C-alpha cells in the first residue's frame, strides 16, 4: 500500500511528517511517498527507510491564501502534486497537516466529490469520558444547508460503523437545547431531515455532552464544529497549565504532584490531541486524512495509522452504496 | 434599591433564589421583591429577612414552551408579573434563573428595546487565565445579521468599561481563523462593519483563545456563543471528574491528592461557574440579569451582586448615549 505524505503544513516543519512516518512504519507495513523538497526529504530520512518514493515539489499552499485560487495557480505545490499522484493507480491514500481549505479544495477539484454528496466534510474523533464520539463537520464548510448536514450524518454513520466498529451508531445534532424547536434556522431544518432518515437519530445534543460519550456521532456545520473543538482545546490546555502551576507552588504541593503524577497522566492523556492525530476528509473519491497543524511526530504517526484503517475498511465504497 | 427576584426557574427549586438572596443581603443593602407562590416563599424565608415584598404569581414559564406565546398567555407567570412590576417606579432590576427565551421575550415585549438597538443579547463573563473576557451573545439570538453583532460589540464595550472597569476594552470576533477572509458569510460581513466603528477592534479570535484573556470582548451570534460556553462547561466538569478519579485510585494517590488539594482548588476555582453566577440581558430598557439554571445559592448570590453593580453604574443610560 502506497501512502502519500505531504511534508509541508506541520507548524514544526517537515521533520514532523517524516519522523511520524518512520514511527508509523514500525507498526504497519506500507510504502511512504513523500511530497516536498527532494533534497531536504532525503537528508532527513538519511537512509533510515528502505523503500519509499519522493515526489519533488518546491511550492506549498499556506493557511492565509485563498485555497481555490492557490490550487489553480500553484501547480508545483505539494498538495496539487500529491493529489494528482493520488488519482493514479496503486496510490491508496494521502495525509497532510496543511491548510484545511487547501486540502478541501484539492479534494474537490482533483479527487472529485462522491456522486450524490453535496459537500465534503472533516470528521474529528473526540476524546470522551467513555465510548466514542465523532464530530462532523469540524471546519470544511462554513455556511451549510440542511441537506449538507444530512449527508454528513450518513457519511459519519458509515465511518463509525466501519472504521470505529460501532454497531448502529447514534446520531445527534449539535444545538443550544435538546428540545426539537430549539436552535437556528438550519438546525431546525436539519432536525426535520434527520428524523426522516434510516439513521439512528437521537435528536439534539448540547455542547456540554460532546465529550461525555452520550452519542456516537454529532452533526454540526463546519463553523460551529470548529468553535467547539477549539474551545475544548483551549480549556484543556488552560487547565493543564493551572494543574502544573498548582503543583509547582511549594514543597508540599510538589510532593503531592509527584505522588499523583502517573495517575493524573493516565486519566488525562486521552484529552491530549497527540493520540487523536488526524481526521478523514469524507465525501471525496479518495482516502485523505488531515493531520493537526500543530502535530508532533506521535500525533502524525497516529494519523497515518488512522488513514490506513480507513483505507483497509473500504469505507468510500460503502459511502457510495449508502448515498445511491 | 428594590430588586425583583424570580423564585421560579432554578433547577434545584425555589429555595435557591431565596437562599441566594438572603446571602446577598449579608453583603449589600437592597430590598428583595420575590415573585412566586406567596405561601411557599414566606415558609422558606421564615422571618429571616426584615424588609421584603412578595408578588404572588402561581404560574411559571418553562424552558420547553414557545416563549413569545407563553408570555402572551401566562399573565399570572412570575416572569410576566415581575417584568410588569419592573416598569413601575422604584423597582431597579430583576433577576431570574428561568428560561433564556422567556426572559428575552419578556424583556423585549414588556421592558422594550433601547432605541437604536436591533437585538438584545446576553453577555457572559468568562473565567480566564488572566484579565477579563466578556462573550456576547451567549444564547438570546439564533440567526444574527452583521448589524446585530455590531450592536453587541458596542453594548459589550460600554458594559466592560463601566461595570468591569476596563479602559478602552479590546473587541474581537469569534471565528475559525484569525485571517480577515476566514469564516462564514455573517462573520465576514461583521468584520467589515466592526472595522468601521470607533471600537478598539482587534480582528478575529479563535475559540482556543476565549479563556486565555487575550481580548476583553468577544462577539458571536447566540448560537455559536452558546456552543462555546457549553463546550467549556462540559470539558471543565469532565476534567474535574478525571482529576477526582485519579486521586481516588490508591493510597498513594489519595495522599498526593490531600497534599495538592488546596492548591488545585485555589487555581481551578475560578473555572467554577458558581463565582460567575449571572449575565446581563443587554439592549432592553431595564436592568435584568439571567442567573444560571443550575445555580446553587452561592451562584445566585454572585448574580444578584453583579446585577447591583450593573444598576449602580447607570450602564443603560450610557448604552443609550453610545447608540444615539
Detailed description of the structure:
Two copies of one chain form a homodimer. By secondary structure, chain A is an alpha/beta fold. The first copy, chain A, has two domains: 1-117 and 283-324, Isopropylmalate Dehydrogenase (3-Layer(aba) Sandwich), CATH 3.40.718; 123-273, 3-Layer(aba) Sandwich (Isopropylmalate Dehydrogenase), CATH 3.40.718.10. Chain A is built from eleven helices and eleven strands. Chain A has helices at residues 15-25, 38-45, 67-73, 78-86, 100-111, 146-162, 185-195, 222-247, 251-268, 297-312, 315-323, and strands at residues 2-6, 31-36, 53-56, 91-96, 121-126, 133-136, 170-175, 200-206, 217-219, 278-282, 287-291. The first copy, chain A, has an eleven-stranded mixed β-sheet with strand order 3-2-1-4-11-10-5-6-9-7-8, sandwiched between helices. In chain A, helix 1 packs across helix 10 and helix 3 (67-73) packs across helix 5. Chain A is globular, with a radius of gyration of 20 Å. The model of chain A has no long low-confidence stretch (mean pLDDT 93). At the A-B interface, helix 8 and helix 9 of A face helix 8 and helix 9 of B.
Briefly characterize the structure.
The structure is a homodimer of 324-residue chains. With 324 residues, chain A is of the alpha/beta class. Chain A contains eleven helices and eleven strands.
Binned strand content of chain A: 15-25%
CATH homologous superfamily placement of the largest domain in chain A: Isopropylmalate Dehydrogenase
Give the total of beta strands of chain A: 11
| Cα separation of the termini of chain A | 28 Å
What oligomeric state is this?
Answer: homodimer
User: Quick one: biggest sheet of chain A?
Assistant: 11 strands, mixed
Order of helices and strands of chain A: EHEHEHHEHEEHEHEEHHEEHH
CATH structural architecture of the largest domain in chain A? 3-Layer(aba) Sandwich
